[in-house]
Amino acid sequence: MIDLPPAEVRERIVTGNRLCSAGPEVVIRDVADGEDGAPVGLRLYGTPDRTTLVYAHGGGWVTGGLDYADEFCRFLAAEADVHVVSVDYRLAPEHPFPAPLDDLAAAWDWAAARYGGPLALGGDSAGGNLAAALALRLRLRNAAREPAFQLLIYPVLGAPGVSDSYTTRADAFPIGAADMHWFFDHYVGRDARDAAGSDLLPLAADDLSGLPPTHVVAAGHDPLHDEAISYAARLKDAGTVVSVQEHPALCHGFLRFTGASDAARAARASVVKSVRRLAQTTHVHAPDTIHD
C-alpha cells in the first residue's frame, strides 16, 4: 500500500468494503454538505430520540468515507440503541491536519444545535484519533455540550514509532509500522507535529482529567496496541471512568473483516454491547430540538 499514491490506496480500500457490507436494516438518511446547514456530508442512522453518537470513520486520515463504517454504524443504531451521525470529513493529503479534526468539530456543533439529548463521540483508528482529540478540545474550550462518553476503537493516540508495539508489531497485517508512518506523513508534515499538541496526539496532553467515560478497544496484532492501553491507563489515573476491551488474536481494523472472520463478528458484537451499556447510563430526556 505504501508504494501507491493516495488515490489508488483509496480505491483498494473501497474494494475492501465487501468484507463488511452487511448489517441490519435501519432508518438511514444521507445529508449532503450544506443541506440543513450540515458542514460536511453526514449519514444519520436510526432515530434521534435517544443518545446521539457522532462517529468518525477510520482510514488513516487518507482513505475511507461513509461506506467505510456503514456496517458498524448500522449495528450501533440497531443493537446499541443509539442515533449515529457518521461524518464524511475531508481527507489528507488534499486536506491535511487539522482539516479532518475541524470537520468533526463542525459536525459536533451541528449535532449539538440539532439534538437536545445526550451526545457522545466515537471513532475507529484515525477516527478514534479525531474523537479523542475533539474531546480534549471541547474540554479545553469549556464547550456548552461535552460528550456523554467516548468510544475509541484501536485509536491513533501517539507519535508514530514511539510505543513498543511499533517494534513488536511492526509487520502486523493489514497495518504495520511502515503504513502508519505513511499515513502520518500524508496527514501532517514532520516539522509541524510537535506544535500540533493534543489536536494531533492526544497522548501529548499534559492533563487528561475531566474527560467523559471512555471505552477503549485494542487489537493484539496492531502497532497501535500499546498507545491505546497507555491512554486508558492515563485516563483512569486522571479519574475518568474507563473500560478496556482487548482482542489479542485480532488485527487492526478488524471491523473491516466481519464478513470473513467469526472472531471479528464476535468482537464487533462485544463492542456494540459496550456502547449500549454506555448509552444506557446517560441521562436520556426528551430532546429539546429534533429536526429529522
Poorly predicted regions are 284-292
Total helical elements: 9
Q: How many domains comprise the coordinates?
A: 1
Q: What composes the largest sheet?
A: 8 strands, mixed
**N- to C-terminal distance:** 40 Å
**Strand order across the largest sheet:** 1-2-4-3-5-6-7-8
Overall 3D form: globular
Beta-strand fraction estimate? 15-25%
CATH fold type: Rossmann fold
Q: Return Rg in Å.
A: 17 Å
* N-to-C series of helices and strands: HEEEHEHEHEHHHEHEH
Q: Characterize the quaternary organization of these chains.
A: single chain
Gross CATH architecture: 3-Layer(aba) Sandwich
CATH superfamily: Alpha/Beta hydrolase fold, catalytic domain
Number of distinct beta strands: 8
Which CATH top level class fits?
Answer: Alpha Beta
The helix-and-strand class reads alpha/beta
Average pLDDT works out at 94
Range of helix content: 25-40%
Short key terms for the protein model shown above:
globular; disordered C terminus; 292 residues; Rossmann fold; alpha/beta
